[in-house]
Design brief:
The protein is of the alpha/beta class. It contains 11 helices and 12 strands. Strand 9 (about 270), helix 10 and strand 10 (about 300) form a beta-alpha-beta unit. The longest helix is centred in the N-terminal third of the chain and has 16 residues, at about 30-45.
């Protein structure tokens, strides 16, 4: 059954991101975010006062203080009062909320932004706080160890092997050579095992970064952008919290989200996948039925993906922004964007974006 078409046409009309860096000790979150907000507004000629709704994504666990997102509003400008919301998630979920807000007709434009500074602390330890608090979190398995568990399950099932994982990393870094914002690009030193069977090249870089997009509805989108990236479908699904009751070699939630977003109705030409580990791209490709073979298949992560830059809380929003930018530049006509959160692809959001016929 075809996915229902949204009641209102909504598009990504602008996207901006930082140059992602291993550390930005000299900058606060606000100082890191403000240039991105200025850039994304400048692309449309809008001012903050022209925005109907603002939504952000971040996490207090990285900042180490409660309600840290309120400080970022200094970069947005919250006076005169604005309509604003926040999600303790990747900015892709903030975009989902903003999209829903625009569907209601309460606003015609929305600013969505996300940011994360991973450099001050141990990300591997911080991410243990999202695990099941009774049976898993007390064991302190970190994010890389859990990803390695998933990778080994894939190898045992015959879905991949270490050379295939290395090829994913090599392709991603090669694609990132054309991305001036990427943190890592070029050749991939395989390095030591981070946690067997994952080597350091199979894992995402730790870094700081921010991103922002502007959404607009209907004719307002065409006024602000020559070729808007229309969001034809978007959906979010969740796996069971308990890792022991899941098949780590598959992602039913991604498949279901893709089905409800309309991914399988017609082929896509581009896919921006939020796969921080090489093994996770294997899982996502299978769930989304993607092929990037020589016969005109899908171009996967032409930006380099999360293996080239993975600012926590912004990397998923960046996947949507990168896919939208390819449509706006005329390099894609129908693109898929994916974002994930939680251990081993626990939560998955899928969006389909299209450009007007050329």
């Amino acid at each position: 059954m075809p996915a229902p078409r949204p009641l209102r046409d909504i598009a990504v009309v602008a996207f901006a991101q930082t140059d992602h860096r291993r550390t930005s000790d000299e900058l606060s979150e606000v100082e890191m975010l403000m240039p991105v907000l200025h850039q994304v507004l400048a692309q449309t000629g809008m001012r903050t006062s022209d925005i109907g709704f603002t939504c952000s994504g971040s996490t207090d666990y990285l900042a180490g203080r409660a309600f840290s997102f309120t400080m970022a509003l200094d970069g947005v400008g919250a006076w005169p009062p604005i309509s604003e919301s926040h999600v303790e998630m990747d900015g892709a979920w903030a975009l989902y909320e903003a999209w829903t807000k625009l569907l209601t007709g309460d606003a015609d434009t929305a600013l969505v932004y996300a940011y994360g500074k991973s450099s001050p602390g141990s990300v591997r330890d911080v991410l243990t706080r999202q695990l099941d608090p009774y049976y898993v979190a007390p064991l302190w398995p970190d994010s890389v160890a859990l990803a390695a568990l998933q990778a080994q399950a894939l190898i045992d099932a015959g879905d991949t092997d270490e050379p295939a994982l290395a090829a994913v990393a090599t392709r991603s870094r090669a694609a990132a050579t054309g991305n001036s914002h990427a943190q890592l690009r070029g050749s991939v030193p395989r390095g030591e095992y981070a946690v067997y069977p994952l080597r350091t090249g199979d894992c995402p870089p730790i870094g700081d970064g921010a991103a922002a997009v502007i959404l607009a509805a209907g004719e307002r989108a065409r006024e602000l952008c020559e070729r808007p990236a229309w969001i034809r479908g978007i959906d979010h699904r969740i796996e069971a919290h308990g890792l022991g009751v899941r098949d780590l070699t598959d992602s039913p939630s991604t498949r279901l989200a893709a089905e409800h977003a309309g991914v399988f109705e017609r082929p896509v030409d581009t896919a921006e996948l939020h796969a921080p580990f090489t093994s996770q791209e294997v899982v996502l490709r299978k769930a989304l039925q993607l092929d990037d073979g020589p016969d005109g298949g899908v171009e996967v992560n032409p930006s380099g993906g999360a293996l080239a830059a993975n600012p926590i809380m912004a990397a998923g929003l960046i996947r949507i922004g990168e896919a939208a930018d390819r449509i706006r530049r005329g390099e894609s006509d129908r693109a898929l964007a994916h974002a994930t959160s939680g251990p081993c692809l626990q939560q998955n959001l899928v969006a389909v974006l299209e450009g007007d016929p050329r």
